[in-house]
Design goal:
alpha/beta, Rossmann fold, seven-stranded mixed beta sheet, two-stranded antiparallel ribbon, 26 helices
Length: about 675
């Protein structure tokens, strides 16, 4: 077994293989121990892989070009033999398990994800779905294929770019490597700046986009071009040898600290990813594959245990996430914590080792595909991928109908699409994302005689459609301004300086809007689950945060009543305390909707604080009113996730658009009296 998994240190850059070990361990730790502090940034292992891929592929292409052996079809055929068989194996096995044992309502969604993975376009699918990579409840068993899709798209495009450089260089002075370096630097710089901007505007979609990941791939490509055009190597003896070794180990230490420290998280793609891009570039640029210049880092990467993990790194990445989803489901059987992680780790290594020996090596190194011409290999791969994708999509419908529990077919909205049954404010753009710097109001019934301003976070945005219908019926005008993770009470959020700066700007626009327009009603609502910190960014004591909340709510409501005829505080909705935490996933797995009921908890201090403060101010003579939806959403104990066959929540804290519509009469009643 060890021989099958061993590389010869002289045949490969074993310092690169050591980086692969660190990267795959970081990703696995991040996924296997969500919330575990030492693995908070383990997801940056994917960014490490991108830099390595850019380097290895560009070095290979430049070497082939120098030997006049550069063939686009041969290059793609080699990628097909190396990557596709194992990927299709994991896709087929994962799909089969999902179809047989997964939630029936998720069959179609997972079939689409598996099909997109087999066609290497899953990053676009997850971007379209606006999947939050850092929220487990949002993730598919194929989510991790997004990075493989990005790499495959790079393999398709980058060789063509180099061929264009070769064609251009034939008529110009200057080496090919020099021009490739220039192209990589220009594209990488543009991608990096664009990624930083895109992540501030729409992080959930930008996270998956190949053009915002190009800077990481181009970083590796630039190093490969730089090394290729440098005919002279720095001396590797004496002081130089010591300095280079110190530099390389320092870079390794930085990568390890960034991936496995627990003090901060880094945004990627964007400037935050430079924390791994730069040290990985340093290691790649300072390495040497020749045996005479091997150092301790290279020799360490060549040790059998680490070399074996490096050999399996691709298979480990393929298997680890679907394995974790299956194993973590055992939590309901009493298996917890480290037991789950140990079982998932062992299962991942067993499956990775088996698929490497039986599938990856035979197809990559053996004669199974090599007897075909390169172009035939590529076309055959395209046909097989298309067949797998179409089979998954076509099989999903009958399987879903066969496995569906009768009561789920009667639900509104349909369980499989309930996650998308959200208020229209999301689509209209008047709900700003966390780092969005723009002020984005929506206007409904602009000819209305009285003005209502709806303000708050996503828990206010979920009321937009209901309020808009009531406002229209009452001949009033509605202006909606909402944003994620930002409190109107003037307290500092816990999402970092960039988010806080955007929040402060948004609050100032809200204050100006209310002050200038003198609305008839300001309607405010926000989540009680927001995280607040002190001015220095630290988490204060309960007493400190209680005092801050008291001051913030009181001063804000007093200011608004000077400009608005009435301020209405719409108390927060109850949170669905289901198991699994996502109510839709709970319903998908339940034999009856009652299995997803949850206790009607007593009002917590955090939830009651804004209500109590507003009531006190109202009793002092200020024009403030409190309305509480709790009894409308949870009229009995226990609370239900399905009421009159209508799904109440699309996640643990937000109402579906369909259920919110059932509250139209209640909203219209108190809004009419507030306007009068």
């Amino acid at each position: 077994m060890t021989k099958l998994l061993a590389y010869s240190p002289s045949s490969r850059r074993m310092d690169i293989e050591f980086l692969r070990v660190i990267a795959v361990c970081g990703v696995m730790a991040f996924h296997f121990a969500p919330g575990w502090v030492p693995a908070k940034s383990g997801y940056l292992g994917v960014d490490t892989f991108f830099v390595i891929s850019g380097f290895v592929v560009t070095a290979q292409l430049l070497r082939l070009q120098q030997q006049n052996k550069f063939s686009y079809s041969q290059f793609l055929a080699a990628r097909v033999r190396r990557l596709l068989p194992s990927a299709l194996l994991v896709i087929v096995v994962t799909s089969a398990v999902s179809f047989v044992y997964g939630a029936p309502a998720q069959v179609s969604s997972e079939a689409q994800a598996g099909a997109s993975a087999s066609l290497y376009v899953s990053n676009f699918l997850f971007a379209r779905r606006a999947v939050d990579y850092f929220v487990s409840a949002d993730l598919s068993a194929f989510t991790h294929f997004w990075s493989l899709s990005v790499e495959e798209q790079f393999y398709l495009v980058w060789p063509i770019a180099i061929l264009l450089v070769v064609a251009f260089s034939a008529r110009q002075k200057g080496g090919i490597a020099q021009r490739v370096l220039l192209v990589a630097v220009v594209l990488g710089a543009a991608s990096l700046v664009g990624a930083q901007w895109a992540m501030s505007m729409n992080p959930q979609q930008s996270f998956f986009m190949p053009w915002w990941r190009a800077n990481e791939l181009m970083a590796g490509a630039a190093v490969a071009a730089l090394v290729s055009r440098s005919s002279a190597r720095p001396p590797r003896e004496g002081t130089w040898r010591t300095l280079i070794a110190l530099l390389r180990w320092s870079a390794v230490l930085v990568v390890v600290v960034v991936l496995f420290q627990g003090r901060w998280t880094l945004d990627a793609p964007g400037f935050g990813a430079l924390a791994v891009i730069i040290p990985v570039m340093t290691i790649l640029a300072s390495g040497d594959s020749s045996a005479e210049h091997s150092d301790l880092l290279t020799r360490l990467g060549g040790t059998r245990p680490l070399a074996a993990i490096a050999v399996l790194s691709y298979a480990l990445y393929l298997w680890h996430w679907p394995v974790w989803l299956v194993v973590s489901g055992s939590e309901s059987n009493g298996i917890r914590g480290w037991q789950l992680i140990a079982i998932a780790t062992i299962a991942t290594f067993v499956l990775a080792g088996t698929s490497h020996i039986l599938v990856e090596r035979p197809f990559h190194r053996g004669p199974i595909l090599r007897r075909w011409p390169p172009l035939s290999q590529c076309l055959g791969a395209l046909v097989v991928c298309g067949l797998v994708a179409s089979t998954l999509v076509l099989a999903a419908g009958p399987i879903e109908r066969t496995r569906s529990v009768g009561w789920t077919e009667q639900l509104t909205p349909k369980l499989s699409v309930a996650d998308e049954d959200r208020d229209s404010s999301y689509a209209q753009g008047c709900f700003a994302e966390l780092l969005d710097t723009q002020f984005r109001p929506c206007v409904d019934n602009p000819s209305g005689k009285k003005l209502v301003i709806l303000v708050g976070d996503s828990h206010a945005a979920q009321w937009h459609d209901v309020v808009a219908r009531s406002v229209s019926a009452l001949d009033a005008k509605l202006v909606t301004v909402t944003r994620a993770g930002c409190t109107v009470w003037g307290m500092r959020n816990g999402y970092g300086q960039a988010a806080e700066s955007a929040c402060q700007s948004w609050r100032s626009h809200v204050e100006s809007l209310i002050r200038r327009n003198h609305p008839a009603v300001v309607l405010v609502s926000e989540s009680i689950g927001q995280t607040f910190v002190l001015d220095d960014g630290s988490v204060g004591s309960d007493e400190q945060m209680r005092d801050r909340r008291q001051v913030g709510i009181t001063s804000t409501l007093k200011r608004w009543t000077r400009s608005a005829r009435r301020v209405v505080l719409l108390a927060d909705t109850p949170y669905a305390d289901t198991k699994p935490a996502n109510p839709l996933l709970c319903l998908a797995k339940a034999a009856a909707p009652s299995q997803c009921d949850f206790p009607r908890k007593s009002q917590t201090e955090t939830r009651l604080a804004p209500v109590a403060i507003a009531d006190d101010l109202a009793r002092s003579g200020l024009s403030i009113r409190v309305v509480d939806p709790y009894s409308k959403i949870c009229p009995t104990d226990p609370c239900h996730t399905v009421i009159d066959r209508t799904i109440v929540y699309w996640d643990s804290g937000h109402l579906t658009r369909t259920f919110a519509k059932t509250l139209d009469p209640w909203v219209r009643g108190w809004l009419a009296s507030s306007l009068s």
